[in-house]
Q: What sequence folds into this?
């Protein structure tokens, strides 16, 4: 069977700032990023659906010792989107020194950013990012 | 399925080594084979663990070279396993399964890694390759970062002040460093204090440098045989009573990082096969890659309720004389973490504990021991329960 949305198509959507998930016809779960099989029920009838791009921070960290090619410090957040899926991305618009436990539970808006690939990766890629809503 | 036992075990000193991956593996393997009263020609197969040889030495497909280094028969196949930090445990489990199934009678299993050869940025990059490349690495996730996010989630979920949690996490490092002082093969053999941890250097908030295990070099290996053959060869073979292995996807699908779903599934398999429960375990070597990881693990095993294991080290319940001794070897934190070898070193420690060979760090009367190895960002867990 074919992927409803491939990684390359997902990249095209992110490039345009669009967040397209897949809604499972069997259980109604929203899957994002797109996958071939619903994470909740193994359903394979998945329909593209546009996501609002808003969510809530569930946890975060500040990376201060970074992998080769990345410039620390930077903030990583794990966000629960309003539609259900969790997404990992950088929290932008605040400095690492402004972070604290009160970030957890705050509302964020999802955006996108292009990250440069390195010799080990598939190349440049668009990834989700977050900014605080209040 | 046939009963399976472990014969000889061997490991190099963990730390910084000038030896090649193959030299380290051969040293550990020859020790294990010799202690079994066997020769390399007696090995029916090699289950070989290595993660990052391509980056460390420009060497892939290391298994047949390890096979040649030891002089194994051409008819004995050598296969490389890679399950990130759980590599060697997964190799051992698969070796044991094929002996149990009757495909082989005696096999060699273990792993080697020269992780300290890479500088910190490259090592951090290569370790991060075990995170999902398309949907997680773009944000620059690192392994300390993964467990750091788990620590923040733990504090919020169970309503513990972060400063309080950090002190209890530091006590895990203090305990495991103390254990390391009793292990001549440990990477670090010096005592530290809670202040050493809290005043070190932030790696990924809230994890300090001393919350983290080191990049280490080292190798370890074990000989596995069908139980009847094992009894003929040795007075005290150690029975593999139960094993479990489970898989879980990327972090964004795992969601609640305080509950390692792969571990909960793996330990259930291992307890069930062994016919034991948490109350039966005397000694554990578990995956304390970061201090918070030890806390998550003891809760998954059922030693503590979820959310209640965070102060176990502070209360002395996981040290010598406690209710279950956790990481008597020093753990990944102090013994070191050459990722492709770690699981085999954990098995080596538990086997030696059950044989009463651990000297100063011997857990008195240990009869049943548990090995726990976590691979990747909580994606693989392999558990092995051993019985004397």
A:
């Amino acid at each position: 069977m074919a992927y409803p949305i491939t990684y390359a198509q997902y990249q095209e959507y992110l490039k345009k700032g669009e967040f397209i998930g897949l809604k499972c016809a069997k259980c109604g779960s929203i899957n994002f990023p797109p996958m071939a099989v619903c994470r909740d029920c193994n359903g394979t009838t998945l329909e593209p659906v546009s996501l609002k791009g808003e969510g809530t921070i569930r946890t975060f960290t500040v990376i201060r010792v970074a992998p080769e090619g990345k410039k620390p410090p930077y903030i990583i957040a794990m966000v629960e989107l309003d539609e259900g899926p969790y997404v990992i991305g950088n929290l932008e618009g605040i400095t690492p020194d402004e972070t604290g436990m009160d970030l957890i539970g705050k509302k964020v808006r999802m955006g996108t950013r292009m990250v440069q690939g390195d010799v080990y990766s598939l190349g440049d890629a668009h990834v989700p990012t977050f900014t605080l809503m209040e | 399925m046939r009963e399976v036992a472990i014969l000889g075990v061997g490991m190099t000193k963990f730390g910084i080594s000038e030896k090649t991956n193959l030299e380290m593996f051969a040293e550990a393997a020859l020790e294990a084979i010799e202690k079994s009263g066997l020769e390399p020609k007696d090995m029916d197969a090699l289950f070989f663990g290595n993660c990052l040889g391509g980056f460390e030495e420009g060497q892939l497909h290391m298994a047949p070279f390890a096979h040649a280094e030891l002089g194994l028969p051409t008819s004995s196949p050598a296969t490389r396993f890679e399950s990130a930090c759980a590599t060697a445990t997964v190799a051992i489990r698969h070796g044991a399964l094929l002996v149990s199934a009757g495909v082989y009678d005696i096999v060699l299993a273990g792993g080697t890694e020269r992780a300290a050869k890479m500088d910190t940025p490259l090592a951090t990059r290569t370790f991060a390759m075990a995170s999902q490349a398309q949907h997680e690495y773009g944000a620059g996730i690192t392994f300390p970062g993964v467990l750091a996010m788990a620590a923040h989630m733990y504090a919020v979920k169970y309503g513990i002040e972060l400063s309080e949690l950090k002190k209890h996490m530091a006590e895990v490092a203090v305990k495991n460093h103390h254990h390391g002082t009793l292990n001549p093969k440990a990477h670090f053999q010096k005592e530290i204090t809670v202040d050493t941890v809290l005043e070190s250097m932030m790696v990924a908030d809230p994890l300090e440098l001393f919350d983290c295990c080191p990049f280490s070099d080292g190798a370890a290996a074990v000989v596995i045989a069908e139980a009847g053959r094992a009894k003929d060869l040795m007075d005290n073979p150690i029975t593999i009573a139960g094993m479990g292995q489970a898989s879980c996807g990327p972090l964004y699908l795992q969601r609640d990082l305080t509950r390692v779903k792969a571990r909960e599934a793996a330990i259930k398999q291992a307890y069930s096969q062994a016919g034991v429960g948490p109350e039966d375990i005397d000694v554990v070597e578990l995956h304390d890659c970061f201090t918070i990881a030890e806390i998550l693990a003891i809760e998954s095993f059922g030693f503590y309720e979820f959310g209640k294991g965070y102060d176990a080290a502070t209360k002395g319940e996981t040290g010598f004389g406690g209710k279950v001794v956790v990481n008597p070897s020093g753990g990944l934190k102090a013994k070191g973490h050459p990722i492709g070898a770690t699981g085999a070193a954990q098995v080596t420690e538990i086997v030696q504990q059950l044989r009463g060979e651990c000297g100063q760090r011997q857990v008195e009367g240990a009869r049943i021991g548990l090995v726990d190895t976590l691979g990747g960002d909580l994606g693989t867990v392999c558990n092995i329960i051993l019985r004397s």
